[in-house]
Amino acid sequence: MTHTLHRQGEYLDRDFVVLAMSAKGLNELGSADKLRVFLRLAEQFHPVNLGDMKSGSRFEYALEEILARVEDTSIVHAAFDGLPSVEAFVAELARADLGLSVVVTGDTEDVRQMCLRRLHRAPHTTEYSLGIWGRKDRLPPADRLAITSMCGHSLVSPRLVEKLLSEVRSGLKTPEAAAAELARPCVCGIFNTSRASALLAGCD
Amino acid sequence: MRIDSRTCRACGKCIPFCPVGAIEMTPEGVSAIDYDECVECGVCLRSAVCPSGALFQDELTWPRTLRHLFSNPVSVHASTRVPGRGMEEMKTNDVTGRYPPGVVGIIIEIGRPILGTRFRQVEIVTRHLAASGLAVDASSPLIPLMSDVATGTFRPDILEEKVLSAIVSCDVPESRLAEALERLEEVQSRIDTVFSVGIIVPSGEAGKQPARQDGERRGYAACLSRSVSLHGKTNIGLGKRSRG
Known about the structure:
The complex is a heterodimer. Helix content of chain A is 41%, strand content 17%. By secondary structure, chain A is an alpha+beta fold. Chain B has helices spanning 43-46, 65-71, 93-96, 119-131, 177-187, 211-218, 221-224; strands at 2-3, 23-25, 31-33, 55-56, 103-110, 117-118, 146-148, 153-154, 162-163, 166-173, 194-202, 231-235. The longest helix of chain B has 13 residues, at 119-131. β6 of chain A pairs antiparallel with β11 of chain B.
């Protein structure tokens, strides 16, 4: 699964997702409590979104509801709009020594330098996006795709973007309120509402 | 997913929520789902936008159940026990050692972004890769759906099922990466959807070159230069094995 990869468009320098999960059969048993610690720690660093793939995001549920549904096989996420918050969160995760795998999605060189500074070693593995191939002529315009691609499961509909963009333009909604509505279909909590607001304001 | 035409108030509120545009207003003035285009992602129902409760999940039977499994990330594949349509891949590589040094993972997500795919399109890719000696990961949830894994051929009864995406992953030695990507380029013109491609590599030695230069040293710089951005996923190496 590559759901936090392949984000497109502008303002990627303010787009980071941190996720944690256990490895099935290797450190899975009892990991639900550690995944809950991850989410509680994340909350201290003011993420723009947060969630568990099985339980939903905080744009649908309160944190306590999400925490109550976390299981050993959950994948938990927190989205941030700046590297300093990510860096402080990662330092705290290292101190907590949960033993879970942690993946940071963002500019790979920024993340690498962060690991050298905070963990005093290079990261382990990187997945690079080689972009979109095939019938790209069938895709929505690039500025709309920049918004929808923040849900890697493609659950944020281009039509919903158009509807909300129209409401923003007519003054019925702020970009921030529209971004919050767009975040709801993304069950994992990886849709970056801060970046979405900026993208909505700049759409043609 | 279905809409009960008797209770639909024709407000159209559900229409923009469908990621694949399968909900339309009919000439009779009610919202209706194109059942062949619907991927059973559940977004319309979860949005709770219908004021009359006309949207409902009908009972899914084989092979339509595949739509739900590959499109609704809340569902969990029995074979992987991972929510969503993929596997652990690089996310737990610090614990599993799934991708040892010298092995590159190629992750091809067919139908992503947003267009979706029929399994017939997925088969075009898997057959082409198989003919080039590139096998689909044996632990992939696609494997049980194949009638002939060696040739990348799917069961005929699933070919027309439409899903938001299906992930084909395969491993290659670093030395064969460029060749593998060339085979993948060949298939672009043969399918009617999009696919997103990722490659999984070691992050590089401490204090050494940034990713692009490290890629050059390892011989896959040409692959990285295809990327529009070095925005990617990094496993930062905090995972540890325990007893279970």
